[in-house]
Amino acid sequence: MSVAETWRYPQNPAHLEWAAFAARVLAGAAGDGAEPGDDRAGVRGLIPVVEPFARAAAEVARWEIGREVGHSIEPGSGGGSELDVDAVAAGFREALAVRLARLAARTLVLELNTARVSGRLGAADAERRFAEFVRAASGRAGLAMLQRRYPVLIRLLAQTCLGRAAALAELVRRFRADRPELVRVLLHGVDPGPLLAVDGFAGDGHRGGRAVAVLRFADAALVYKPRPVGVHRVFNEVAQWCNSRLAPWDLRTLGVVERAGYGWTEFVAPEGTDPDGLDRFYHRHGVLLALLYVLDGTDIHFENVIAHRDHPVLVDVETLFHPRFGRSPDPAAAALAESVYRTMLLPRMVVGDDSVLDISGLGGERAGRWPLAAPDWAGAGTDRMRLVRRPPGFAGAANRPSLAGTKADATKTEAEPGRYAEAVVEGFGAAYDLIQGSQSAWIGPGGLLGRFAEHEVRVLIRDTAAYAVLLDESTHPDLMREEERYHRTFRELREQLGLTVALGEPADDDLADDELAELLAGDIPVFTARPGSADLWSGPGRRRPDALAETGLAAAERRVRALSRADRDRQEWIIRSALAARSPDPPHRFRAGPPAAPPSAAGPKHLLTAARDIGDRLLAQACRAAADERAASEERINWLGLELLADRFPHFGPLGASLGTGYCGVALFLAQLAAVTGDADYARAARQAVRPLPGLLARLADRPDRLAAIGSGAWAGLGGISYGLAHIGALISELEFAEAAILATDLAARAAADETEHGVHGGTAGGLAALLAVHQTTGSAQAWDAATACADRLVTSQVMADQAGAGADHIAPDHPDPAAAASAHATRHQPHHHPEPSDPTPPTGFSHGPAGIGWALTRFADAGGGSRYAEAGLTALRRAVAQHTDAPGTDPSWCRGLAGVALAVADCPRAQTDPDLSGFLAAAVHRVRELPAPADPGLCHGGSGVLELLAAMGESVDGYAGRLLAAAEASDGAPAASPGLLSGLSGLGHGLLRAGFGKLVAPVLLLRLPGG
């Protein structure tokens, strides 16, 4: 009696089918087992252990297929002109074996190591001992041992086999029934011959192991989707409507064959294009963006787009009309969630410790690594095999266009999307205007939107990656021993992974039950809706009436009615800004400006006018809560813009809390502008911007485990927030902010105790200077004690560095910005390039090198710290000066260049009496004047930073002030300007105020406070 026949015995209750299947698999296993093949990468060396299950599943699938064709199909008999059953079954068996090996790997590796430690493996080397274990485990006795010790694992293996076999048989049945129309509609009438393979059964499944699959023939392919595809058919109709009106940038659509509950689509292979085609490709991306924007599409990541010649082809549109769940209290985050960025077609960054990756429909770079650690196997194929967590490889996708004829060298010929920002914007604008001007065709009875009303769309109630993590972690061998523990731990894992909230609210019991039922079956849970209904359906079919706040159709109609020139301008600014995050230029890179022209008139009046223009732009760009969601007195504002997370990775999104690139720095500039002009609007905006900081600090006080990751630094840490609050509070007389500055001081001190970064930007030197400024303004003893602790840590680090013969300026990368603590979205980042190995050259400049450390220590010594700190500080300054003496360089910037080192010396009275340091300072100022002025007008690596050095030396700043004035005029309407203080509009505004009103406006680069 075959496995298939035993499985189908009618007396077996449905819930025991897996048990009967498993029993027959174990009974039919070979006595001696099998050795692994030559390919032992990852889990492949373990495949012989699970191969009996995969073989039996293929037999079941063959038996089911035989029922469909009306006769049994014996191995080697082919199967007829429609399909090659032998080839299909072999491919299914191979893919399923890999999946089963992943399920069993943790348990098998535990058994492997137990056998090694206990001395049961007697072969001569690690590879042979691994083969010895696999041979024993894959035999009848070994499998019986697994069944006794790990019955849950056996159930999972058996259920996976039966589910995938049934799914394959269902696919073949549907293919045979639909084949004539598939040939006619999707294959242009050309019969492709027998079906040879079905790809897709190694991946995650839904609804009983069903998965999207590619059917392959000798010279053709089709895509099978085990879900309704009506939404894609209607999307094609909408695209064709646009095509007839946007001829130059018509969209290529997928052929679709729609059936009840499932469907088929055309297979589109990636193909290159010519250079002119790249421009057309990105124009069409813009058209797609506009369509997805009005159709409320989301989750259009790199796997859902194929670059076919000069067309970006959408291959999956199941997440159109996606509902909104909750609303962020951050108005910038809320605005972004309502914008074109929601589509995920624009750059969306996954951030790791050392690299980032753009996973958007425009991104998906090839030949890189996934930035986040994932389970992997070290020592695979040896008896030392063990689970590790490290970033896996990332092969890329087929969504990026490349030049035709260069497929073999695709990594070098792929187009960089950031270079085609204007093409994307132009295509978006054309489609946007078309839709806005044809609203009657879109909404109302018979409108384009109404055609979607009854078609199923998918609802992502949470990140589906969390489901996959839970399924993977639930295969721990301890959970494979007992069903009760497995189920109990599953629920605990669900809570630990944060899966208790859905639809913006705590998940109800029915929702949780549906999720757990699908997860326990090994499936990724699925939820669906209909655009014309507010109901929600789960994978098992449970319907929840009115679970959604509004119908997807109503939301889309509201979007179309709200189209306007102002909204289009806003969306185009977001497109440009998001694409700017893909800039290939490394951060903090100095670029020389054009040859100096005669300075413009740069008197205080002109400078103030330019600063006010920037302030007004910031007020206009601020995101605010909807009028019915806030009281004016409690309104919070924030901005969208570019930030450097971890001071390395460009990221577009809501600003975080930091002084350097976040809303704290923007508020500080607005407060300074208010103090100079007396304009209450600027002061009000400053208050509104930092309004969330007291609450954020209170929450961080309850999470001491996060403090070291944030750091005490001046520009990216808690020290800068403390300084910013104290500075703003002093300018606009806000007592609450002064009190919050004291709390930030305490948190900065606690962060400094465990941080490894020492520089001003993100580490202890910045914390020291910021805390000292707060103490000098408030007289807080707590701030002084915290500053002393920071100074002691710096002195210790300097002594240890000297003893080791290395510079303490050789520092670790800065810690992440507090944006990560303030905004849940801060898990994304900059794209393609993975950083090169770290530069062995020690960092220079004020922000990251020993110059800033020495400056902070000598400043503390001058405030009463004593000679011990002065000596350590001067030593650090000499080290910084030596670096520039040995290699003068051509970078005059503040952050990493000559101006920064010189400013640290210029602001240190003790250094003026040191012949070497004072001599360096004079030469440095002369050198800075000789070097080309920076193209960037900002503080960090631009003209405002150089101006601060000249002002500190009493030099004329007219030339640089004129440059800043010209830059301010040129920046009007700049597409991707960041609002931030270090490298954005606020920094330029601060530079203008410093140039015209130096005695009234305290220099933030020196962390001075008013009157300090």
UniProtKB/TrEMBL annotation:
All residue ranges annotated as the Lantibiotic biosynthesis protein dehydration domain in the record: 150-529
GO terms for biological process, alphabetical: carbohydrate metabolic process; peptide modification
Position of the signal peptide: none
InterPro entries documented for this protein: 6hp_glycosidase-like_sf, LANC-like, Lant_dehyd, Lanti_2_LanM
Region (Disordered): 583-603, 805-850
UniProt cross-references to CDD domains, sorted A to Z: LanM-like (cd04792)
NCBIfam families according to UniProt: lanti_2_LanM
Protein species of origin: Catenulispora acidiphila (strain DSM 44928 / JCM 14897 / NBRC 102108 / NRRL B-24433 / ID139908)
Protein name per the record: Lanthionine synthetase C family protein
Top-level taxonomic group: Bacteria
